[in-house]
Every structure is written in C-alpha cells, then in structure tokens.
Design brief:
Blueprint lengths: L12 E6 L6 H9 L4 E4 L6 H13 L1 H9 L17 H17 L7 E6 L6 H14 L3 E7 L2 H5 L9 H21 L4 E5 H6 L5 H7 L5 H8 L17
Parallel strand pairs: 1-3, 1-4, 2-3, 4-5
Length: 241
C-alpha cells in the first residue's frame, strides 16, 4: 500500500529540471532533494508531454477556441458539436493534478515537488508547449535548465556509441532551445552549467537564489562529494535521447 501523499493544493510550488542525458541531471536532482521539504522525482519517460499536448491541441485549435469564446450552442449535426462546452483550463488543471497525485506522489510534508527529465527536446515541436503547460497548470512552477560541456557528454554513457558530430548537433539544438525559452521567459527559469558548479560550488548560488532557498554551502558540498553509482550499464535504445 502506498504511503500517504501530499495533495496538489498543499504544495508551495514545483521545480522541473530541463536537461539531456549525462549532463549531471541526477546530481542536480540530489542537490534539490537536499533542500528541506523538496521531493524532486527522477525521470518518467516524458509522461508529461502527451498531457501537455492534449491541452495544447484544445487551446490552440481555432475551431475550439472560437466555439468556447462565442458560447453559441451547436446542434448534434454540427461537426464540432459541443465544443462550446469544453472547459480547457479546468481540463488542464485536472491533468496536472492527476500527474502530481499518481506520478509524482510527493510524500506528506513535501513543500515543493517536480522531476528531472532528459527527454524534453526529443521532439522540438513539443518543447515549448510542454513547458508552457507546466508553467500554467502547476502553480509556482519553475525550471532549472542544466547544461554540460558537449565534448564531455559525447564521451559519456550511451552517447559514446554515436558519432561526435551527431551528439554535438543534438546538444547544440537543445542548448539553443533552452536559451531561447529563457530569453523569452527569464522569470520562469535559471540556467546552471555542470562544468561551472563542479569546479566551484558558488556557481550554484543563482539556482538557490532563484528558488528562494538558502544556499547551504556545507550541504551542497556534501552532495557534490557523494559519488553517483547509476548507469553502470548501458540503457536500452528506447530510453536514449
């Protein structure tokens, strides 16, 4: 039996780690979970994307939005019969609340929850709609964009099976998508860089400042000094980004 969870209405906010594989994302996850009251889950195979896109389809289709705005009753012969009854915002909130309860399942006492994912940029067309959905439907949602030196990533884990050129192209595209989103919505996120904060933990302070959390140097150093043991074997092809 699953332990009791914190309900969405009891949470203070959400943090989503936006990154790619072998970037130090699990380290960032551990850093965030070292903050009192945080429960930042690991990857979920991009499960948020289809929810976000379902809401995006409703809110971006003019046949739906026009019907909702006009509120003119349609008959059963109309090709968009009942579209005026769609409650898009309530639908989005229901999807988000269900995701929190059934996927994130933050334990009682959690103040801030969320997750880290390395598959955000798998489909560039879905990237912005997904982040916009998360920002709108998860109250006080914030993004932590984590990057790393491309040459190091290319030599790490499953990336080493690909050509350096192919890896670099993927990472350049991802970093550009992160930068573009932050440039348009600077209030929504913060960027940290693996090579900066592993060389000098002070490089993490902007993340803590952005989140409104104390920067405990001793606690941060303890996390950074703890070796990670995951990914000792290669991941299945289906999980590669």
């Amino acid at each position: 039996m699953r332990s009791p969870i914190t309900l969405p209405k009891d949470l203070d906010g959400y943090v989503f780690v936006v990154t790619y594989g072998r970037s130090g994302s699990t380290l960032v996850q551990n850093l965030l979970n070292a903050i009192d009251g945080y429960c930042i889950r690991g990857e979920n195979a991009n499960a948020l994307v289809p929810l976000a896109m379902s809401w995006h389809l409703l809110t971006s289709n003019p046949n739906v939005t026009n019907a909702v705005n006009r509120k003119v009753p349609t008959t059963s012969e109309h090709p968009w019969y009942g579209a005026e009854e769609i409650r898009a915002y309530q639908y989005g909130r229901s999807l988000a609340n269900s995701f929190v309860r059934e996927v994130l399942a933050p334990p009682v006492g959690t103040r801030v929850t969320g997750f880290k994912e390395i598959r955000w940029t798998n489909d560039p067309a879905q990237f912005v709609p997904t982040l916009n959905f998360a920002h709108k439907m998860f109250p006080n949602a914030r993004f932590v964009f984590n990057t790393r030196n491309h040459e190091e990533v290319a030599k790490s884990g499953w990336w080493a099976d690909m050509s350096v050129e192919a890896v670099t192209a993927k990472l350049v595209r991802a970093d550009a998508m992160f930068a573009d989103y932050l440039a348009k919505h600077p209030e929504r996120g913060v960027r940290i860089h693996y090579n900066d904060y592993t060389a000098d933990l002070e490089a993490l302070k902007p993340m803590y400042d952005f989140l409104g959390e104390p920067f405990d140097r001793d606690r941060v150093k303890a996390v950074l000094d703890t070796p990670l043991t995951h990914l000792k074997k290669k991941v299945p092809d289906a999980d590669r980004d």
